[in-house]
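Lecture 7 notes. Example A: sequence first, then its structure tokens.
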Amino acid sequence: MDALRIGIVGLGTVGSGVAHILRDHAERNALRAGKQLIIHRVAVRDINKPRGVDLPQSMLTEDPLSITTDPDIDVVVELMGGVDLASKVVRSALANRKHVVTANKALICQYGPELFQLARENDRTICFEAAVAGGCPIIAAIGQAMAGNQITSLQAIINGTSNFILTQMFHQNVSYDDAVREAQEIGYAEADPAMDVEGTDAAQKLGILTQLAFGTSVTPDHFPVQGINTLALDDLKYADELGYAIKLLATAKLVEGRLELHTQPTLIRHQRPIAQVDGPYNMIELTGDAVGKAWFSAMGAGQMATASAVVADIIDLAIGRAQLTFQKLDLWGGHPPVSLQPAEEIERRYYFRFTVEDRPHVIADIADVLGRNEISLASIIQKEAPETDELAAGAYPIVPLMFMTHRTREGLIRKAAEELKNLSCVTTPWVCLPVAD
């Protein structure tokens, strides 16, 4: 049987998972690929470091470019992460006429069009299913299964770490910090979870999906990005009382011929399927002009979910299916780009949560700021303060105060936010989140 010889760059969590699937299920892989899938050589940062898969020492190297220039290697699997060195590795692999499989969303988001062009010039293919949504085959869904549609809306939970943290906070009644520590202990969150909890990871993935669905090349600095790291457990409880779940939602949708983009913690009505996705799972809700709504969901965080997508790409290359899609169908932006809607013009409803002194005129002061900025209120909820004699003379109890607005523009919300900072009755931090209707 013919063989496809594979060079892996990076043998961390995902790389070890890929090696396990390729070695432990060699017979199954060969049957599905039509040829043997052989790990030929692996680049690691430290040859002497213990790792999650046992490979012969002779197979390892600390020089990633020796993988890309090895004439016996057919496919380079880039799993090292980062951008600068990863870009150098991928460019070298393509220049040496090797196919590339990557799970690197930052690389594809930042350099995708350029790397895709280089691949085509060298008659080679880049596969990147694992870069978005872990084990959920959303890249193939948009590029192939939904090819008969113009996608009009894309709303997605595409960071499993953040979704796990929010789920634990709400269902286990724990603080944000405790939920983050649990995610780190399980392996869903890195020692430094900033990329996940600040929204950057989801925003990079949204950039990739936006390029595929709408032909528009964007990076996270082109649209509003907000993480879950400012949320408190109380916000999840208050939202639930109002009939909503809070999820880190990545959105791209057509509005009067322009593209509305944002990645933010968002209130979503309980009855919507995407509001019911818990734990490290991802879900992408696509709306197509022909098919209507379609949902795709799978594990979005964890070693084997991502490794599964990497191996699927390798099998697609072995069969030749990936090359056909890449070269003939122009998977990366097969239509004219859609222009972006300015963030200030985004229209939606908003949720505010303040912590205020329970004294006369507080609600009026906040409502006055919002009203002068043309923001209409749909509802106001104030939690009752307990009666107590323990307060110092002239002091007031501190209570939470929630506002739900009618539809308004992001630009007006930003103007009001600057004025709200100057109200002495409002303590910081306070929270403002969009509502997805």
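Example B, a different protein, same format:
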Amino acid sequence: MSDTISITRFVDFVIKTGTPKITSVKTTKEQLSTGYDPRTDFYKAFREEVVAMHKASDPNTRLDTLLTGLTDDKKKTAYPALLAGYKKFYKIRSTWPWFDPPKGSWDHGGVEVNVNPELGLEVAGTPTVLKLYFKEAKPSKRELAIINHLQRITLYDASKPNRIFGVLDVRRGRIIPEVLNNSLFTALLQGEAASFKTIGDAI
């Protein structure tokens, strides 16, 4: 198994224990076999509108257009909560300059993980790279640690030492900044990648 997987799928695998890891790999392989389809990307419209709003320095009321003409019942339920949370994070017209966030991939043992934060904002003068977290449940400390650590080891640029990484919990409008981990955490993720490949090759 040597396909590129999303950071979301890899985190889903790492946080599981026992046989649920097998199910996680099976789900990932099924998604890879069918390929990416924007029609089934539940949060695509939200991500794209948020990025466009920041690039144009528009007020957060621009996001209200996301609710216009919704026909998907699940989106009718989820999107209002996402908008409310995002507006809590980004006030009517905050003055946070945009920069294009870095993107890359983390590769170990034949498993390549896309590391693709959506936002680059100078929050209170600090260049901050943020991965959006959309789930209804609050992110666990373990999920946050994995995402932020992968961002740090993959996207760190020595020429921009003041840049920090974090996760934006969209529904609650809250930034969770990285907590720096030591090299042993990298070794842990390498072990998880090896396990993912072993399971993937066996099923």
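Note on Example B: The mean pLDDT is 93. The first helix runs from residue 7 to 14.
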